[in-house]
Amino acid sequence: MTTTPTLRKLSTAIALAAAMAVTAGAAATLKPTKYLADTRPELKIEPSLPNEFGDWKLIPTVSGGVVNPQQNELLNILYSEIINRTYVNSKGQRVMLSIAYGKNQNDSFQVHKPEICYPAQGFQLLSNRAGELKVAGGVIPVRRLETKLGSNRYEPVTYWTTLGDKAVRSGVEKKLAEVSFAMKGFIADGLLYRVSSIDSASDQAFLVHQNFVDQMMEAVDPPSRARLAGLP
């Protein structure tokens, strides 16, 4: 019997819905109370980030120029640490880096995704695609966004999120990871790692992002690489 594309899509949708229902029910039943972050050395992201690596140098007087989805008061509730930086390479290409780390990554305190916070600040979301970054230590599952503000500010974005020491791509994958931690009695921490640049040529910008992340992951120590991107 031949399966039509429509039936395949329907089967996939049913499977995803079932997985989400099971994981949501399990998470609600387990009710973990211990924070995974409390069982490990305290994570301080800022000191782990190099000011200079590969072909990139920090511009110390320029912040990340990033889009913040909430006011500072709410940001301080959602996140334990927020880093905004801008780096430049020898070609004059700039990359804005934003990292938001939260000790509690349950449904009430989730890292705020760019596809939500950028439009909230007036940006148009032109595209949103899944991808991968092949970097020092392995492969990071990412999302690549094309955004636009007004008539001439184009800002391509590459980002990923982590739960514990694992980079997670989708809502279902995140839920499964949450349940895995909850079964051990833990509420997992997590972060959002975002790089962006002002560039109307998105394909070129994404290659710059790839180079930036690859060189940074090669420069940081293994424990930092694991916490930042789920890499060994």
TrEMBL record:
Reading the lineage from the top rank, the first entry is Bacteria
In the record, which residues are listed under signal peptide?
A: 1-26
Is Signal among the key words of this record?
yes
Enumerate the InterPro entries for this protein: EpsI_type_B_pred, Methanolan_biosynth_EpsI
Q: Which Pfam families match?
A: DUF3485
The record places domain Methanolan biosynthesis EpsI at: 14-221
Transmembrane intervals = none
Which UniProt keyword terms apply here?
Answer: Signal
User: What is this protein's record name?
Assistant: EpsI family protein
Species in which this protein is naturally found: Sphaerotilus mobilis
